[in-house]
Amino acid sequence: QKEVEQNSGPLSVPEGAIASLNCTYSDRGSQSFFWYRQYSGKSPELIMSIYSNGDKEDGRFTAQLNKASQYVSLLIRDSQPSDSATYLCAVNVQGAQKLVFGQGTRLTINP
Amino acid sequence: EPEVTQTPSHQVTQMGQEVILRCVPISNHLYFYWYRQILGQKVEFLVSFYNNEISEKSEIFDDQFSVERPDGSNFTLKIRSTKLEDSAMYFCASSRDRGFGEQYFGPGTRLTVT
Question: CB A98 to CB B99 under 8 A?
């Protein structure tokens, strides 16, 4: 079973701090990795994609990938109350035409 | 910015009835997907579609489900005989690139089966 695991939280972070979200995956053949943000009752919104080992930065967001450890993370700098949402890690496994999602981490930013 | 659209936003139906959920993918995207999310659970893959054919489907996507691209813009999911357990949010997604590319999700259709 190809799985994606996330800590379901809730993760509580003070406003202005760094939020760190983690994800592990089981299939070593996974090729691409995505972070989606999902507000309650809404659809997943793509915020980051990462395909190779290392860091990728986009504004306040940094995605980190370590294929050897089968680990992907998302850092949110200068956290804002509007960042409060569930963050979904999604993985595309090799040869598959689909994304496999983790259960999501609920993040709360406290003013 | 182009986006995926879905109609209706909410559909209520009785058990055993047929429903059709509609999606308009982003116009230059070639790969289309349906996912569902039961309340409080993970987003689950149902089916992927490319070049008027199903590319991949999950074990959830049984004979009660079908997909179609009836014209150049719409992409539909049909459930022939709905069950109570089909109640969920159904998301359409599209991508420009094969499998490993970024998938953009529509706002979803909330299906309630009574």
Answer: yes
